Amino acid sequence: MSRRTWLSCLVAPLALAATAAAGADLPPVPVMVQQPLPSAWQFQLTGYGWATAINGQVGVRNLPPVNVNVTFADILQNLNGAVMGSFLAKKDDWLILTDLVWAALSDDATVRLPGTRHPTLAAISPGTKVDFKLRQLIGSALVGYRLPFGTPDLDIYATAGVRYQRLTAELDVFPGLIPVGLSRRSIEQWVDPTVGVSMTWRINDRWFVNALADVGGFGVGSRFTTQGFASVGYRWSESLSTALGYRAIYTDYRNDGFTYRATEHGVFSSIAYHF
What we know:
It is a single chain. The chain has a ten-stranded antiparallel barrel. The longest helix has 23 residues, at 3-25. The chain is mainly β. It is elongated and about 70 Å long. It has helices spanning 3-25, 72-77, 119-124; strands spanning 42-59, 66-70, 79-91, 94-111, 128-146, 154-175, 182-202, 207-217, 224-235, 240-255, 258-274. It contains three helices and eleven strands. A hairpin with a 6-residue loop joins strand 8 and strand 9 (224-235).
């Protein structure tokens, strides 16, 4: 081996060692770790129809409560208008839900004294015409937090919120023989705190089940109120779904001679837009 070759063999490892040592002195290259993006809000706007029937007792101005059993067919016959809808927002473990039910009803009747059904007597004593109008508003708002014992396809939330109810009744009386009308209007409104649970079960990519139950009142507004709701739905696309179910709200409210102990219940159908 020549002297030049021997020197090359000796210098090459030293050069590699020096390069490695110089590289060791350089600062380490930072590793870029991508942070997970925060989950986005999910919204749902729902319009629905509630085929409501009413069963219970109603009393006004210290009069004995009377039984009320009104079918949906009776209500539909005297319905002047209705607006029903809800808005849902979800993010991470939180849920926010608002709901509105407004309906206006009216009816009229002619009250005659006994024995005046004969045409001649009816012409002389036309009786008293009574017009009755009723407007009801039920507004609800709640916040829910997902409980830890759900599954990837089952979300269960503990909820707390309020339910506001307002009843406006107007009575107009027109005696047949007196050209003067009498009018009375009464408004009752109250707010109930509520606690409950809400559940969503995604059966598959299309079918789902929603349910909600709560109790409230506790003497703050009404003595007691409770609600139950369950529906089965189908998701037609990412942004559109429909559902069919049943809903019931019971309220026991008494104040200054006014009594309202009634259950509103009936079939529920809805169409929702998701965005």
